[in-house]
Amino acid sequence: MAFGKSILGDLKAIVGEANVLTSAADLAAYSYDGSSSWQSIPGAVVFPSKVEHIAATLELLNRHGTPVTVRGAGTCLSGGPISPPGGVVLCMTRMNRIVELDREDFTVKVEPGVVLHDLNRELAKHRLFFPPDPQSFLAATIGGCVAEGAGGPYAVKYGVFKHYLLGMTVVLASGAILELGGNTMKNVTGYDLPQLICGSEGTLAVIAQVTLRLLPLPEARCTVLAIFNDVRQAGKAVHRIRASGVVPAKIELMDNWMLRRIEELSPLGLPLDAAAILLFEMDGSAASVAPETQEVIRLCQEAGAIQARASEDAKDAERLWGARRAAFSAVFGSAPTVFAEDVTVPVSKIPDLIDRIAEIRKRYDVSIVLVGHAGDGNLHPSVLTDKSNAEHCGRAEKAVHEIFVAALALGGAISGEHGIGLEKRKFLKHAMQPQAIDLLRQIKSVFDPKGILNPGKIWE
Ligand SMILES: Cc1cc2nc3c(=O)[nH]c(=O)nc-3n(C[C@H](O)[C@H](O)[C@H](O)COP(=O)(O)OP(=O)(O)OC[C@H]3O[C@@H](n4cnc5c(N)ncnc54)[C@H](O)[C@@H]3O)c2cc1C
């Protein structure tokens, strides 16, 4: 799809010539995201710098029926920010101001292009903390995280993005600017529209500003590394610790393939012969962290860990968490195509999910690597393949399908945090009733009657 020169001229008049990209090289740079299966060249990339720019851009594109796909940092793992060919990418990275930090009421208002890490660096200066921590936090934007309903290791104790969302400014496809929610922890005024926008993957509205709830920075933290000879045993340990009443802030799992690959890329002294490791973080007051750390070590040993130890110091802890953050890069660099999945199950079912994945790996004879936020039941089994090898890729796709079937059979979901996007559209019908999918479509058409916002995502 191509759009006329007059639309391009109007876009430049709205945001300024320097804020519209159209060269082939620039368009190619905005044609993909963090997944490895999808690419499509947009017709233009537009950078708004204020809400009025977004409103005027959407009003224009809606009038012409031109597709528009919002983009943050493009770290999405489900194809979400990829525009249909020739559409407009509305890239929010130049709207990156922290608008107002309210230390009295523990809230912050931010523009959507603020990078999560930048927010937490600023908050730390005031002894404040925003817990949700997708492991892409060095690049991911707040707008992208709200739109994906993102979460990370801290979900075990602190929850995910939606639990911190108080209010937002959004722009509808028509160009109308709406204020939703507010500044208070409690608010039951009509339907909870901010929660509807959260996780809507850019299909309902453009998020132009967000008000988030904050917490005081914990006084102390300690990391525990536990090594297991058996992945299932590590999964059982997670459930045992959760059931014990101790609440670690994070519980992450990595399997042997992942440990070896991370060591190969950047040696960190990880235990190469371990079948799996668990990484825990305990946080809180200094008086509570020390005994909880000892309790987690004891529970891991009781659950069969061959070794469990506390981090020596902050540097040692950062080395271990750095390895965890490297996990996706390690996976993506190791095969031409990676289906990085994102299933979630009740925590007690983690050992069963691990067993099912082992069976599926054997049945389809494909490499499936395991990493994930085991403490909240969210595993990322990544299936390694190559799109150019149809026979292998066919087996890999069947394996992915079986992983979804297994997660659903165990009472889980096909996405814990990466969203449906393009990647999981064809599986939606297995995870939701037809009436519920129809309701989604109706909601979409109320917000965006011409269907210009991020078309082609979530359902086929
Ligand atoms: C190495 C790596 C690790 C990751 N780890 C995690 C993890 O632990 N947890 C997790 O949840 N995810 C994780 N992700 C996935 C990804 O980082 C998250 O989905 C993140 O929220 C995307 O943010 P972004 O700014 O890159 O958004 P993008 O990728 O640019 O966009 C994501 C979606 O949000 C929409 N969108 C973006 N901005 C707006 C806006 N202002 N208004 C409306 N819609 C908008 C887009 O249209 C798209 O559908 C990881 C990705 C990578 C590459």
Oligomer: single chain
SS elements, strand count: 19
Structural class, by secondary structure, is alpha+beta
Main sheet?
A: 8 strands, antiparallel
Tally of separate domains: 4
Plain-language structure description:
By secondary structure, this protein is an alpha+beta fold. It contains 16 helices and 19 strands. Helix 1 packs antiparallel against helix 3 (51-64), helix 8 runs antiparallel to helix 13 and helix 13 (350-364) packs antiparallel against helix 14. The chain has 4 domains: 5-92, Uridine Diphospho-n-acetylenolpyruvylglucosamine Reductase, domain 2; 98-216, 2-Layer Sandwich (Uridine Diphospho-n-acetylenolpyruvylglucosamine Reductase, domain 3), CATH 3.30.465.10; 220-328, Alpha-Beta Plaits, CATH 3.30.70; 335-431, 2-Layer Sandwich (Alpha-Beta Plaits), CATH 3.30.70. A hairpin with a 4-residue loop joins strand 5 (98-102) and strand 6. The strands form 4 sheets. Strands 12, 13, 14, 15, 16, 17, 18 and 19 form an 8-stranded antiparallel sheet that branches. The chain is 37% helix and 21% strand. Residues 33-34, 69-77, 80-81, 92, 112, 134-136, 140-141, 143-145, 147-148, 150-152, 201-202, 206-207, 328-329, 417-418, 454 line the site of flavin-adenine dinucleotide.
